[in-house]
From TrEMBL:
Residues of the CTD kinase subunit gamma Ctk3 N-terminal domain: 1-121
Organism: Kuraishia capsulata CBS 1993
Coiled-coil regions listed in the entry: none
UniProt-annotated stretches for the region Disordered: 178-236
Protein name: CID domain-containing protein
Length: 321
């Protein structure tokens, strides 16, 4: 495959990127296979992630994590492809995934981006990410200065710290926006409660055929005390039905992958250790009298359900003790 054809293929894959791990892995293996084009492919990633919609941007960011993880699995190589370039531009990439626009639509990608960034920090060995996650959980109303935590053991800590500071600032903006909307709603409800209903019992009624009874309605027929819809809020929710359904399906796929990763056990030497056995053994308690009674009931059910023909099936005799 010539360089131009490879670039076009890689561009199509990124523009149609979904949340499927299989697609991420296949695309990452294709990029690693053509590592001599890594500079060209890196520019494609930056171009595509700034041109597609918010859902695809999040999927491309998820793909970047898979690409970095696949690169780290290569073993002993002189230079790991894509790694240095991607991590160096990571602050720029996350600003494209969570764009800081006036309509605040980018906040829709905030929660999932934090999850991907946490997983990426774990892959790159950035332990200070746990401290930033604690700040996210205890974030308050005040916009205090966010410290920059640098790990001496992680050479990419500066770029990752910049990414975490950005997402925390976006979380603060989201919190401020929600509080402003809540205050606006409370003030509007309070002002509407102060309006007293007019008594129309003493108001004389005009004759039906009197032309004076026909009043010209104003162009804006909305009630004066009814709060107008916030343009920022309406823009924040301005997603098409197709984008919403696609996002629901993609989030479902990501949640399924997150649950699958909970079962992964890291064994550096590939062997089952005594400490792991003791940890699993400590989860279970000795059998109690109630457990023995349940086992006895199950044994009785098995004896009653198994016939003589089943016991002698294929010339093998089953003995229940």
């Amino acid at each position: 495959m010539d360089p131009l054809e490879a670039r076009l293929y890689f561009t199509r894959q990124l523009k149609s990127m979904s949340a499927s791990l299989q697609q991420h892995t296949e695309c990452a293996k294709f990029a690693i296979k053509n590592e001599e084009l890594q500079e060209d492919f890196h520019s494609v990633i930056l171009e595509v992630i700034s041109a597609v919609d918010l859902n695809v941007r999040l999927n491309v960011f998820d793909f970047i994590e898979v690409l970095i993880e696949e690169t780290l699995k290569l073993g002993k190589v002189p230079e790991r492809p894509y790694l240095n370039r991607l991590v160096a531009d990571l602050p720029l990439i996350i600003r494209q995934v969570i764009p800081t626009t006036d309509d605040l639509k980018g906040l829709a990608n905030l929660n999932t981006s934090c999850t991907i960034l946490a997983s990426l920090s774990r892959v790159l060995g950035y332990e200070s990410a746990l401290r930033y996650q604690q700040i996210l959980q205890t974030i308050g109303e005040s916009k205090a200065e966010i410290p920059s935590f640098l790990d001496a053991s992680c050479k990419y800590s500066e770029q990752l710290a910049e990414c975490w500071i950005f997402v925390i600032q976006m979380r603060q903006n989201e919190r401020s926006q929600r509080q402003a909307e809540d205050r606006l709603a409370n003030d509007s409800s309070f002002s509407m409660a102060q309006v007293q209903p007019t008594n129309t019992a003493d108001t004389p009624k005009a004759p039906k055929n009197d032309s004076r009874s026909q009043s010209v309605q104003p162009e804006d027929s909305s009630a004066p005390n009814e709060p107008a819809s916030s343009p920022e809020k309406s823009s924040y929710l301005a997603f098409s039905n197709q984008q919403i359904l696609a996002r629901m399906e993609q989030d479902r796929e990501r949640n399924k992958r997150a649950k699958e990763s909970l079962w992964i056990v890291e064994r550096p030497d590939g062997k089952f250790t005594r400490a792991e056995f003791d940890a699993i053994y400590a989860r279970f308690k000795p059998l109690s009298e109630e457990d023995m009674n349940v086992l006895g009931e199950v044994r009785t059910m098995v004896q009653e359900s198994v016939t003589t023909d089943d016991l002698n099936h294929s010339g093998k005799k089953l003995k229940l003790t």
